[in-house]
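ok so I'm stuck.
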Amino acid sequence: MEKALEQLEEAPKQLHVTRAQIVERKKKLNFLEPYMYLVPCLIIFIGFTYFPFFKTIYMSLYNTNAQGEMSSFAGLSNYIDLFKSPSFLNSIFVTFKFVILTTIPSIIIGLVLALVINNKLKFKGLFSTLYAMPMAVSSSSSAIIWMLLFNPAIGLVNFVLKRNIPWLASPFWGFIAVAVVSIWISSCMNFIFITAGLKNIPKELNESASIDGANYLHRLKSIVLPCLSPTLFFVMVVNVINGFQAFGEINIMTQGGPAGATNVLVYSIYRDAFFNSRFGSASAESIILFIIILSITLVQFRYEKRKVFYQ
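replied:
not stuck anymore, here's the structure
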């Protein structure tokens, strides 16, 4: 009888502990719930971004055979051999030249087109659609179209210029042709972003400046460009990164030629890996490209703090 009474007295305590445990578990589940939604995204990032990145670093330290299997440890010799290679040094020079000669014109063209559309222009929607159409075309498809346009015999470009320029057979003109295609593709993207940025500028600023007697150039210099600086900074960063990663138009139009004139770093990586079966060397080139892009992006963000004006 006494044991039964003791069990009855302990039952509420056990029930109380059980309820407290349930509450604690619910708190833990509520804390973990947001992170559980991130698990699918993290799995994709780990599988397609982080794992290949660290695998590339690991592979860059090894020599590989024709099947891509790591055969022997190389250490930093792959990196040392690259900086001794004239072909690799030329690809770095060509890449920087390509980025500089495509980024600035594409931003200027996109800015000018956006300013034209932003003014009171008839058929604004039609022109906006025409300017933005290259965004719907892949770089490979664009390259095929431009190859026909640059054809020295039947191409429209030589017909309009009334000259016989060997666009894709000359090192100088081959580089110009690829740069033109890249500018054409990038400028439409810049146009879209800059147009969106112009719409966010308060109209009251331009109206008050007009009332005070400021002409269009003064308003452009003192109001439009400062207010547009965050968008221009974003466009600059994206264009620089895209310039370093240019591949499609080069692969279709020139295959890195003529005479290495368009052998940018990404195409050099592609050739070393899939044509020469030098996967270790190609991995080392990829890491060097990553370091270059990261360094330039960090410099741009450091410069952004002084020159970008946020409303």
